[in-house]
Amino acid sequence: MAKFDNSFTDELRQRLSLVDVISRRIPLVKKGQNYWGCCPFHNEKTPSFSVSEDKGFYHCFGCGEHGDIISFTMKSENVDFKTAISELADMAGVKMPEIKQKTPEQKQAEENYVKITESATQIYQDLLYTDAGKTALDYIKKRGFSDEMIKKYRIGYAPKNNIISSKFSNVKQDKLIATGLVRIGNYGLYDFFRDKLMFPIFNAHGQIVAFSGRSLDGSEPKYINTTDTELFHKRQTIFGFNFARDAIHKQNRSIVVEGQIDAIQMQNHGFPETVAPLGTALTEDHIALLCKSNRNIIFCFDGDNAGQKAAIRACTLVLPFLRDNSDVRFAFVSGGKDPDEILKSSGESAMKKIIDNSVSLIDFLWDSINKNYLTNTPNGRAQADKFLKECISKISDKIFQNEIEQEYNNRKFNQWHKWKKQKYVSEIELPDIDSMTENVIKSIVQTYPEIAEKYLDFLSSLNISFDEKSPKSDLDFENAEKFIVSVKLQRHIQKLNQEKQKILSDALNNQNSGAENLKEIDEKIKQAQEKLELLLDMNNK
Ligand SMILES: [Zn+2]
User: Fold this and answer.
1) Ligand 1: distance of its center to the CA of 41 in Å?
2) CATH topology of domain 6-92
3) In the CATH scheme, what is the homologous superfamily, with its name and number, of domain 104-232?
4) Does an H or E element contain 211, and which?
5) What separation in Å is there between the alpha carbon of 59 and the centre of ligand 1?
6) Rounded to two decimals, what is the model's pTM?
7) What is the pLDDT of residues 401-456, one digit of tens each?
8) Who surrounds ion ligand 1 at CB < 5 A?
9) What's the CA-to-centroid distance between 72 and ligand 1, angstroms?
10) Is 3.40.50.720 the CATH number for 236-372?
11) Nearest C-alpha neighbor of 231 from the set 253, 259, 200
């Protein structure tokens, strides 16, 4: 049978959540580490079908069915491997690759690759504790790294000379070049990393696939990373993930910081669930990887403009992954410090405070559009509204999307449209409307901001407080508008009747008759009543 490239099926497993895929078929409930439901493969009333998102496997304790995301799709939909893969690829939004099998040569090449990176790491580690590595060691110690931490993260030193090119002289050039550790120039091979503090980059299985090197002489850029290779894709790799994985499960959340030193310090000072993207830009793949464990992420950024921008970017990237049980939050470190400095100067408790004070994605998005657009002008509000609508449309869970939309409608209504607070002054005082009608109006106003805008003069004359939240209106748009118009007509008739009473009493007190006016008012009342009847008649149809 033709096989797909393993890396493609791996990519599907990485991008799709097993729990999501299975939940489309059967309801699952989380109990402990795993999710449970009634087995779709045998008949049962009490759940014995367990799903482990972490391991990527399901297992039924009733009938013994067992497998992964691909076998589940094959069995539950009764389709072959190829169809299952193509359905999952659709779901994950990735293109189907050409069918290709990993050749023995490719497998061999991967093995060679990891062997080279592994021994290079060992060389760098040893050099850190020699005279050549003194500056690097001093630097990393000054950043608060203990020997234990240096060992755990396998931090090392790449010397000024071409150590890798010379030590691996018995290895074929192309194999060495494939790892990104060396390059070829006019004078032969040379090391890509020279005079750098070296942080190995591990894949999710704990293999070293790349390096991040920090300059030690103050030269820019501060960090250089291995350029993408067969086994290392910067966009898909998160620094520290292999160390944080278990904690992300246990704490049921992940924390994303900007730099790798921050990530290491956080992991070792009370926040083992912390990771960092490589370089500054976060990608969709990074978020997909984190969301596989759970959808609770705290993004921790700098409080400055760049940090705000990065946060907005993270926000738009994470929206498609949001579910009603996700908790995505944003924390900001102020005062130009990063988490590493906070931990050092003020300790874990200060950092905990920052994390605890994080704002929800819903609040963050609202606050930032109000900061970035002039929402006290119609133009600014329109721009902000467009951006907000674009964001909301990215949420793929439809029910949740509706709820978020409703929440923002409430905020727009209460915070952008201040007209409801204006008091309407009328020469003729009408009694307040009854509470039942008032409640219907309130829910219409909150559900349909467009209607509220259209009838705002009338609504603001009603002496109703629109401040508190109301339940969603049961009426559809058309009937909601009709309801408002009918109340408006009734109030109009009430007002005309009062005017009529006034004229009549005036006429009694002084002999000047208001007969002309009276006729006019009677005519107006008649017209309004006809309109109202027509409207109510239409409602009954
Ligand atoms: Zn079963």
Assistant:
1) 5
2) DNA Primase; Chain A (3.90.580)
3) DNA primase, catalytic core, N-terminal domain (3.90.980.10)
4) strand 208-215
5) 8
6) 0.65
7) 999 999 998 888 878 876 555 544 455 667 788 888 999 998 998 888 888 888 88
8) 39, 41-42, 60, 62-63, 65
9) 12
10) no
11) 200
